[in-house]
Design goal:
The protein is of the alpha+beta class and about 170 residues long. The chain has 7 helices and 6 strands; from the N terminus they run H-E-E-H-H-E-E-E-H-H-H-E-H. Bound molecules: protoporphyrin IX containing FE (HEM). The site of protoporphyrin IX containing FE has 20 residues, from strand 2, helix 4, helix 5 and helix 6.
Length: about 170
């Protein structure tokens, strides 16, 4: 299994297999079995899933954690270690990785300001950000906004009952 989906090649995600546009033009990702919201709630409730708990986090520290196996993001004043959450993110790993090691607040609001991240990421809290936000790199451009990777067919044409038929 590749790190972003069904491909064995970890470099290129396979959007035509793992994502599709809804009728409203939003990217949906097919989460793997056992990686839904209820599963996340089960593994994260009353746990600490952050690699560290710090009294405060500087920009220099946050920037270091920008990899898929060590991914911290700043969200509205607090830093979260979302490494364990990545596979459960309904928008997909690459979307969330755009903000790895930086301030995710604007992107987060842009996509889903209504999502209750405070509750969902309780287990992932590292600590309050006490650094200079201007030292942080900007979030990466949207991978799925890249026209060469953009799926152009609606989800209904990708997943039909035939997809589950035995041949
Ligand atoms: C900051 C970088 C992030 C980006 C670029 C991003 C992007 C996206 C995208 C493209 C979707 C699919 C939109 C759709 O449902 O049609 C999505 C869904 C979602 N994301 Fe994120 N996301 C980010 C961070 C987060 C974080 C930190 C959380 C916190 C728990 C989160 C939770 C969710 C949830 C719950 C959904 C499903 C929303 C729904 O179905 O209405 N995301 N995200």
């Amino acid at each position: 299994m590749g790190k972003w989906g069904l491909s064995r090649d970890p470099v290129i995600p396979v959007p035509w297999l793992t994502t599709a546009k809804t009728e409203y033009g939003r990217n949906k990702v097919l989460l793997r079995p056992g990686k839904g919201l209820m599963d996340w709630i089960k593994i994260s409730t009353n746990k600490s899933l952050a690699s560290q708990r710090l009294p405060s986090v500087t920009a220099e520290e946050l920037i270091k954690h920008n990899k898929e196996n060590d991914c911290w993001i700043l969200l509205f004043g607090n830093v979260y270690d979302v490494t364990k959450y990545l596979e459960y993110h309904p928008g997909g790993i690459p979307e969330l990785m755009r903000a790895a090691g930086t301030d995710a607040s604007d992107l987060f609001n842009q996509y889903h300001a209504w999502v209750n991240y405070q509750n969902m990421l309780k287990a992932c809290i590292v600590g309050p950000f006490r650094g200079s936000a201007s030292k942080l790199p900007r979030a990466k451009d949207a991978i799925l906004d890249n026209p060469s990777l953009k799926p152009s067919v609606p989800v209904s044409t990708i997943l039909t009952m035939d997809s589950f038929a035995l041949w």
